[in-house]
Amino acid sequence: MIRLAVSGAQGRMGNTITHLSFKNPDVFKITALLEHKNHPKLNEKIAGLPISSDNNSIKGSDVLIEFTLPESTLENLAACVKHNVKMVIGTTGLTPPQREKIVEASKKIPIVCSSNMSIGVNVLFKLIEIASKNLKGIEDISIGETHHIHKKDSPSGTAKTMHDIALQCSPTPPHFDQDKIKREGEVIGYHEITFETDFDTLKIIHNAKDRGMFAKGALEAAIFLQTKKNGLYTMHDVLGFNK
Fold first, then answer.
1. For the segment 31-59, what is each residue's pLDDT rounded down to a tens digit?
2. What is the pTM of this model?
3. What is the end-to-end Cα distance of the chain in Å, rounded?
4. Residues identified as active-site
5. Which domain holds residue 151?
């Protein structure tokens, strides 16, 4: 039984993580729910557990799952070190100095830190690495993505990671196909990368159908940490790609 604390408990990701945990009572027990001190639902209860702004409430938990803002993440990171609580960090937008603090903390507690917790997306990253290293005579590598109209960054962070992997692993530099960078409706996330050689075309696609995929990955990361004492890990470690 994993005693689980959830930060940003009333946010989209926190809510999803909490409800998925309740569906697996043999694996997870929610022991702390955190929100910022000005949240309108502070002190309300979920399944009898109050939502708290005091991160000392994580004491006695095994793992804290964190999908919030960088500043809150660092505050909760300090609390995890203080109370010897393992940590799964899905927070994005971390600066290099903030990431360095996570590296330092990982010398005392085990941490999984990833900007994308989706199992499917991380398999996509691995497939791009394999294709980039093993396809011979690549003439062109193009990347496209589609997201909902509310998304501000373009290309997406996931698309940039795809680009970076291909750039590191192939002598042919990848590029973004601007005709395939789109913002449409309420699309959760669609990504594709196309490899062209003299002899064939290889296209790898990931289409997100439900945001719950990030929560599922975070819970898998929490399970992974149960056998770890300290260290900094990624979803590739969780999925066994770095063995």
1. 999 988 878 777 778 888 888 889 999 99
2. 0.86
3. 26
4. 147, 151
5. 119-208
